[in-house]
Design a protein that fits this description.
The chain is α+β, with helices and mostly antiparallel strands. The protein has two domains: about 55 residues; about 130 residues, no CATH class. Helices cover about 30% and strands about 30% of the residues. Strand 7 and strand 8 form a beta hairpin. The protein is elongated.
Length: about 240
């Protein structure tokens, strides 16, 4: 049988089963297109995730919390913290001196009572935490600016809020610019003994202009401020 005869036979067979042949060809084409599309989506998603994570600081960063592990847990990956352990500036310097550690940055939180602007159905007050960070090293921190900017490193009148603050005010997260330029009052509590010998509370109040909205994983809290601000709060408390 010659090539011409074989081609003629194949053409005749395909003509008799035209519908089946067409469906088979379409199925193969569709499957190939879906595989290519799936591979493209996976690669694109992976690149975007890495890009977003890297915006918040180095992917290889490690968070050291102020707690000591319980004894006898050196051989487990599921550590349970024991009593709180204060991390001092000396501890930070010692950690920064460890092999393969390029830089460290301290994070200090303080409880605050926040009072949003009046009206618009906002809550009267919010009990949250202020997250104090060294904003001179913002590129080394897991903080991503969503809108606006970060406070100046030495400012005592600026603050950045998280998307959680927008949720508290029942605002759309797709329009974070709505809170930029507004003012929030933050009060750091202090416990003292009143005239009758009973414990009472008073606050160290500051009015801060919201200059940005961020997504952050430095510590739990909805207000990002220069670390000197939370140091002053701790000294007051």
């Amino acid at each position: 049988m010659s090539w011409r005869d074989a081609f003629r036979m194949a053409f005749a067979s395909g003509t008799r089963r035209f519908g089946r042949t067409l469906l088979t060809a379409l199925a193969v084409t569709l499957a190939s297109a879906l595989l290519v599309a799936l591979a493209t989506i996976v690669v694109t998603a992976n690149s975007r995730v890495l890009a977003q994570v890297s915006k918040g600081g180095p992917i290889t960063s490690i968070k050291v919390v102020a707690a000591a592990a319980q004894a006898g847990q050196l051989e487990t990956d599921s550590l349970r913290p024991s009593a709180p352990h204060d991390l001092t500036e000396a501890d930070r310097t010692r950690i920064e001196g460890l092999p393969d550690v390029t830089t460290t940055s301290g994070v200090l939180t303080s409880p605050v009572l926040a009072v949003p602007p009046e009206g618009r159905g906002y809550p009267e007050q919010i009990l949250e935490h202020a997250v104090g960070v060294d904003l001179r090293r913002s590129n080394d921190l897991p903080i991503t600016v969503v809108a606006g900017r970060l406070p100046s490193a030495t400012s005592t009148t600026e603050v950045a809020v998280t998307l959680g603050y927008l949720d508290r005010l029942h605002l759309d997260a797709d329009t974070p610019e709505a809170v930029i330029g507004t003012t929030v009052l933050l009060g750091s509590p202090q416990v003292y003994l009143g005239a009758n010998g009973q414990r009472d509370y008073r606050g160290r109040w500051v009015a801060l202009d919201i200059v940005g909205v961020v997504a952050q994983d430095a510590a739990a809290g909805e207000f990002v401020v220069p670390i000197d601000q939370t140091r002053a709060d701790r000294a007051w408390a």
